[in-house]
Amino acid sequence: MLLAxxxxxxxxxxxxxxxxxxxxxxxxxxxxxxxQIVHNKYVxxxxxxxxxxxxxxxxxxxxxxxxxxxxxxxxxxxxxxxRQRNLKAIDATCPxxxxxxxxxxxxxxxxxxxxxxGHEGHEEVVGTSGEAPQNIQLVDGPDAVDQVxxxxxxxxxxxxxxxxxxxETMETVNRLxxxxxxxxxxPSDDICYATQNRQQVVKEIAPDCDVVLVVGSKNSSxxxxxxEVALDAGSRAGHLIDYASEIRDEWLDGAATVGVTSGxxxxxxxxxxxxxxxxxxxxxxxxxxxTVEERLTFSLPSxxxxxxxxxxRG
Length: 314
Known about the structure:
Blueprint: E1 2-5, H1 11-27, E2 31-34, H2 41-49, E3 52-55, E4 66-69, H3 76-84, E5 88-91, H4 95-109, E6 113-117, H5 123-129, E7 136-139, E8 156-160, H6 166-179, H7 193-205, E9 211-215, H8 221-232, E10 238-241, H9 249-252, E11 258-262, H10 268-279, E12 287-290, H11 302-313
Parallel strand pairs: 1-11, 1-12, 2-3, 2-4, 4-5, 6-7, 6-8, 9-10, 9-11
Helix pairs in contact: 1-11, 4-5, 7-8
């Protein structure tokens, strides 16, 4: 077995999950969470068991209650809705997503056309687009470039969803630059460090793997991308699973080497379950393949830190 590292929780996910856990301790159940706090079935189920209630929109939250906004970010109108309903809003948006929101606001203020590379309907894209809907148009992959129309080819910038495939994003950017030679790039890379790191280690192990198993949920953009990256990099097969119990024995038939990794919203317990499952089927030798050490951490949302301090003072 080749076990990829880095894998699993990134700093933004760790912060978001911890935000809900601390809010439950501090305010007591129930704490409402708008959308899935992170895109992982196990994490959502575990938090529900502790008293979190997941809703789609603010209207489902009783007036005056506590609501946590997910790691994927929300549009400004969602904050306004929360104020109107007198909700205690705690914003668990990943700081790297917030960075993209700030870029969108800044370029929109200068009246740029903003080409947002991302997947239509993804929560992060909806949130970022909401910052400047008049200026932003979505570019959903390289094939969407032909439909792009801008007002002034000299005032155009591209931004991206943070969880995309690095290679596909750059293919989209290159096509855009062919069409719009004066296209500007974001001041710093929008695709998050964790997404890039997880894709890079999979690229390195995939050529040696007969099958790569990615632990992650189907609605997790970065987890889905890892399967694609593994196949593109040379693995004979790749599968996305939430739990070890979903592994089918026929996937392992004739396999000598199995690669294992997990998306950025996956707790490592689920990966350990997969290793145990595979060991019982003859894959007992594990080599951890590590590319970089991740040390980044994010502090909890300011609203929550303030209330935690006040509670500690008594």
